[in-house]
Amino acid sequence: MKLNRPFYALAIMVIAGMLPIVVIAQTPANADSHGPATAQANTPSGRQASPSVSLWLTNPDQSALFQRQPANLMFAPPAGNHPTITVDTSSTFQTMDGFGYTLTGGSASLIDGLHREARQALLRELFSTDSGCIGISYLRISIGSSDMDASVFSYDDMPAGKKDPALTDFTIARDQQHLIPILRSILALNPHIKILGSPWSAPSWMKDNDTTKGGRLDPANYKVYALYLVKYIQAMKAAGIPIDAITPQNEPMNPKNNPSMVVTDTAEAAFVRTALGPAFQQAGLTTKIIVWDHNCDMPEYPLYILGDAAAAAYVDGSAFHLYMGDVSALSTVHNAYPHKNIYFTEEYTAGGSSFAGDLSWHVANLIIGAPRNWARNVLEWNLAADPNLNPHTPGGCNTCLGALTIGSSVTRNVSYYIIAHAAKFVRPGSVRVASTMTDGLPNVAYQTPAGKKVLIVLNQTGTARTFNISFRGQAVTTTLMAGAVGTYVW
């Protein structure tokens, strides 16, 4: 994270139109709870059209929080002069890997601190797809500490002036305290969840400044750092945690976090080409290498690496955040290298910001915008924090609101509902399909492995909007209040 810096927090608040609110504890979201109906079927009385469409709704005033509406919508011949979103499953795009969060070390410690029954109930709500659950299907974790751990650490820390090039002191013992037990519980609920690992820094002794903050990886240590990452993947596998992919560096152009490390595009290409890729190959690892893992304002960074044929041979794709730039940068990189994958790996919400503003901005740019620009996943930053937005390292993000606030009770915050609208229904293996963009109603559509159709729509206008959803020549008519998000499933 880089958002401890006031500039970025302010920039996101301005873009999102955030207004201060008092964060209050929510009743745990129940996927089967029946909120007020805000959509009506456009069919004659007594007539039953097939298939029916279920609507799951979040309103910006929080009158409905990811609630299934009691009245199913029924397809019928089109009627009414309303804007129309047409879903076309014959036109397909990327396959989705999932939706979720970064499970920081701090998040894991807070969840692990709950009583056993409460912990298991919460994990089931988060990671199962049963009634009342939201079905998180993708997680990002830090390799060593992120800035939202209680302290900074790597897996091979040495006293100042000491080095360990043979990695004889390598250990993942810190992760054994909370992170690995929580991951094991998650894998018991969802054995197929994908896990991405990202380092915030190499061990200090491998860097040119011998500190946790800033500095660069000494090229003389490229091969030992590659071995460090190999040993990490192997140690996690031995602990029962499969690592699907890694990025070589979180936010490689951000030296101001703690921990952090600067890695230029030329350095990352050289590291992948000469050290990391060959080390993975020699160790027989199938873990993917995903480059960049930073903002949308520098697509030239991943384009440089993908243009290096020797480095790109080891690279699965590129990952993005959206604290700067425009989400269309994902398409810029995809269009240049369409055989390489695109991922969206981080965005935060701030403590004290506007539920309505965050809901609208994040759904428009992440849940809708990132997949429409070829992302295979969408991850919000930070699954959990405490009521004081802790834990974080000295110099780490002190404004980052978790999807959950865990204190004497568990509060579900705006990013919980942002992710829920996609994660529960757009299961891994779902394929994005065509849907027409209508003014003020951004949307994205999928067909799931089970054959279901899923359409996520945001009313981005300032008034209630009535519109049609058209599929195979029939339509349903529905209304969303200003700023509302609806997930339609049939």
Report on this model:
The chain is α/β, with parallel strands linked by helices. The protein folds into two domains: 6-15 and 97-427, Alpha-Beta Barrel (TIM Barrel), CATH 3.20.20; 39-93 and 434-489, Immunoglobulin-like. The chain contains twelve helices and 23 strands. The strands form four sheets. Strands 1, 2, 3, 4, 18, 19, 20, 21, 22 and 23 form a ten-stranded mixed beta sheet that branches. It starts with 5 loop residues before the first helix and ends with a strand.
Concise summary:
The strands form 4 sheets. Strands 1, 2, 3, 4, 18, 19, 20, 21, 22 and 23 form a 10-stranded mixed sheet that branches.
Question: How are the secondary structure elements laid out?
Answer:
Layout (H helix, E strand, L loop, with lengths): L5 H11 L35 E7 L8 E2 L4 E2 L9 E12 L2 E5 L2 H8 L3 H12 L10 E6 L29 H5 L1 H11 L4 E6 L22 H17 L6 E2 L18 H19 L4 E9 L3 H7 L2 H4 L4 E9 L3 H8 L4 E6 L2 E2 L4 H18 L2 E6 L3 E2 L14 E2 L2 E3 L3 E3 L1 H10 L7 E5 L7 E5 L5 E6 L6 E7 L2 E7 L4 E5 L1
Parallel strand pairs: 4-21, 5-6, 5-13, 6-7, 7-8, 8-9, 9-10, 10-11, 11-13, 14-16
Antiparallel strand pairs: 1-2, 1-3, 1-23, 4-18, 12-15, 16-17, 18-19, 19-20, 20-23, 21-22
